[in-house]
Amino acid sequence: MKISTKGRYALRFMIDLAVNSGSFVALKDTAARQGISKKYLEQIVPLLNKSGMLITNRGYQGGYKLARKPEEYTIGDILRITEGSLAPVSCLDGEVNLCERQDGCPTLDLWKGLYKAITDYLDSVTVQDLVDRYYNLGTNEYYI
Question: What is the rounded distance in angstroms from the CA atom of residue 137 to the CA atom of residue 27?
């Protein structure tokens, strides 16, 4: 599994909002701080906004804020919004495994275990954890 640029940039955007949580944050400001194209962020924001992760404010001093506290957002939630399924194989993508070979598949348990490890880990890390890491690094820049 490889996390796309969209997923990585969404995490950087959410961390930036958490770090700059005093007021609404303009997209152009986040783009400048993060070295991300504003146009690219404009493609990511609707995904996060539609899922209820953001509060938006238009007009003068408009921008974006987190809808909840940073500790209430897991990295798994954000990546599922931007990446879709985190399943390592297609047969684990849906609620029900529709693979005709599942009963005799010697690798199915391997993929299930990997999927569980991925989701358990990503669901155990929050945006607040990454904000804390940012402050512990003692720098004004962070990379994902």
Answer: 24
Report residue 134 as tokens.
Answer: 């940012």
Rounded-to-integer distance, Cα 132 and Cα 29, Å: 21
**CA pair distance 73, 1, nearest whole angstrom:** 21
Distance CA 67, CA 128 (A): 14
pTM above 0.85, yes or no: yes
Cβ contacts of 144 within 8 Å, gap of 6 or more: 8, 11, 12, 15, 130
Contacts of 123 (CB under 8 A, 6+ apart): 74, 75, 76, 77
C-alpha closest to that of 40 among 6, 69, 64: 6
Q: Which two tokens stand for residue 92?
A: 């684990």
Evaluated on CA atoms 80, 82, 86, 92, the torsion sign reads: positive
144 vs 142: CA distance, rounded Å: 7
Burial string for 114-124 (b: 16+ CB within 10 Å, else e) reads ebeebbeebee
Over the stretch 54-97, which tens digit does the pLDDT of each residue have?
999 988 888 999 999 999 999 999 999 999 989 888 888 877 77
